[in-house]
Amino acid sequence: MSQALRELRELLGPEGWVEPADQEPYLKEWRGRYRGRAAAVVRPVDTAMTAAVVRHCRASDLAIVPQSGNTGLCGGAAPDGSGSQVLLSLDRLNKIREIDPDNQTITAEAGCTLAAVQRAAAAVGRYFPLDLAAADRTMIGGALATNAGGVNVLHYGNARALALGIEVVLADGRIWNGLRGLRKDNSGYDLRNLFIGSEGTLGIITAGVLRLFTQPAQTVSAVCGLPRLERAPSLLAALQEGVGERLVGCELMSRFSVETALSLPGCEEPLAHSHPWYLLIRVTDVADATPLGERLARVLQRLDMIAEARVASHTQAAALWRLRKAIPAGQASAGASIKHDISVPISRIPAFVTAVHDAVERAVPGTRPCIFGHLGDGNLHVNLSQPPAMAAEAFTAETTRLNRIVHDLTAACAGSIAAEHGIGQLKRAALREYGDPVGLDLMRRIKTALDPDGLLNPGKVL
Amino acid sequence: MSQALRELRELLGPEGWVEPADQEPYLKEWRGRYRGRAAAVVRPVDTAMTAAVVRHCRASDLAIVPQSGNTGLCGGAAPDGSGSQVLLSLDRLNKIREIDPDNQTITAEAGCTLAAVQRAAAAVGRYFPLDLAAADRTMIGGALATNAGGVNVLHYGNARALALGIEVVLADGRIWNGLRGLRKDNSGYDLRNLFIGSEGTLGIITAGVLRLFTQPAQTVSAVCGLPRLERAPSLLAALQEGVGERLVGCELMSRFSVETALSLPGCEEPLAHSHPWYLLIRVTDVADATPLGERLARVLQRLDMIAEARVASHTQAAALWRLRKAIPAGQASAGASIKHDISVPISRIPAFVTAVHDAVERAVPGTRPCIFGHLGDGNLHVNLSQPPAMAAEAFTAETTRLNRIVHDLTAACAGSIAAEHGIGQLKRAALREYGDPVGLDLMRRIKTALDPDGLLNPGKVL
Lengths: 462, 462
Description:
Two copies of one chain form a homodimer. By secondary structure, chain A is α+β, with helices and mostly antiparallel strands. The first copy, chain A, has 17 helices and 19 strands.
């Protein structure tokens, strides 16, 4: 062990130093797609110690890979294979520093899980809306570093919209205290949003002041079968005209995506008949004389672009959302798949989906697009399942070609090739290819201004 | 005229070149507090010409002051007194480039007024919520450059929350096309929010893709009299629990601020009795079987912290909002005033207001705090009216001392000394004094990275 690493171990103490035998969970991405090596895995206990680690690494010319939750999908929190980088886990920074029910804010450290923040908010009668499938493992630091999305973005916005302030350890080891709990603050440049979503390449987010909301007193779900996709964007607008801001979720599922989920235990047909497309809707409201289910049923009856609809009971609603969440796992039953996380303007979704179907069929006949996602955000998961008769290896050999097809069509619709999962390592080359050159130049200038030595998370994003 | 200016005139053509006799409206801030001189006043007709102007100015070492609307309150759009700067007005970039009702977006150029965008949205059945007293003169470019707030921030957010994408002319004359209409896009750093709110010091915003919403079908206002301020923050939370996301406005007015407005024609007592504090509430909803007014009345009846409340008819609502908007003008009738635009966490408003009252009374006995603002955003206008018996000049001589008192108390409450009006020239020294030194250093680095020659709006913000 080098002198620099011995000093680092000294600085962190035994609790902050992860011995090689225990490093595996930090070095391996949870799906196993990214696995690196590290010179050290360290777990500072607070912001001051995090800053001390950064200062030490800077003096010793050690690159740092920040990690908070390790639930990302693009390899943003995985070290490279050189064994020269220091993996800095924020999982011991797990304190709720403050809850202010009247300001409707909570100040949580990077290592708090989403579930822990949700529980702390609920304990004072408030609601924290950031929610993902992995809410019990996803941590605030990672959610902010990647500007996480999830199932409530349509109404509450993504992580960026929920963070009023953040605390950041900079590349030179200084601490920027931007922990303000203000809804209006025009005193200078928006540093907060620069760090949020920068995937640990500009600074290490150690805590955030997060917005809380009133607890919804009523929650009702419904499922609609659509004969065709063409009118889905105007259906969304019509739903918003009917129920207003009560609409908090609007998920789109193709018949094929539903079928993959139906292969799993606990999943059942959402409606009596089969439909090419499904919308899964969630509405919430405060306590009210008008039961929300009746209101939603009235609105759905009026909309002629729906072939069949059902407002769900409490039990039925759980089954519907189980079905939705089962799609990624269910897709495994359909063989090899090539996945994309893209967004396009909502109005262009129907034409985009048609173009994807046509182009992948031409490229690899028999490919089954498994398309689902967040209609209200324009964010679709365009996953492609292999043709049934094809060998899995032969299909995955087409990855580059099929990626190009989906990304070219996304770009042609003025969309984003990285909607909610970020860039990490996975889409770094694609960002160089599809990103606006002027924008990329600005990003590089900012990176150089804030991390001139390239110490923070090298090989990610840029 | 120098060779560089002659070439600039050539580049712009007669329509884009403002002769000295016509320059006055561009050189003078509307309240007359800032008045500068300019080497030239130019009005490019589109983004390409704006970029050409910037390239020419850069080559000729001419500083640029961008201006869009000229309705700011902090001198951010006024040239200095040297007569060496080029004032670049964006008022000819006034095209609505695109409306996409199904994507719920509008693409508007910098010179479009808020009112024009509101009208264009309404024409396709949509709603653009950014609204200020000067909506018919405020332009999109200025609103984005200053991250404008207004009366709907509580529910819809400020200008930043309403802009999905922007187009920017950079300091080197390149154009960054960030005009995306996406609700989810995690493909790299958040450049958009860096330019928004930077007051023209990092780039010139030439167009924006703005979010539209469903038109509210019902709008109801109410006024409440509060015996004391202590419970106002929990009253806000209780209102949100009662009416949910329908609450779009929640304005606080002190009795003295109401009295100043009552001195103006067309303003009348809001309630039968006089109260130390008033809340002016606005709720909106889609069409509904339950009339919104009845619902609001039921909620208000339950809340024991309200001494007297009245749900307003349509006519009464107009009178209430006229009263609210009359406060700044009404204050003139109370003699000289010293104004502050601050924000603090909502929960700390009562203690902050008490501290301000005590401190200004100690400093200048008889000073009458005229406090009003946006309770839901924590944004208060802390205006101080002179003691009735004091000479106006003697009171304004206390400006520095009273500014310090209000700003020190704001800082002690973890607040912002520049909530919605920005920094401009007015608060540049205060930002240096009250801003976090690490944050200020980051801002300077970013300024240097994006505008190394200091060409854009020198002497503003930093």
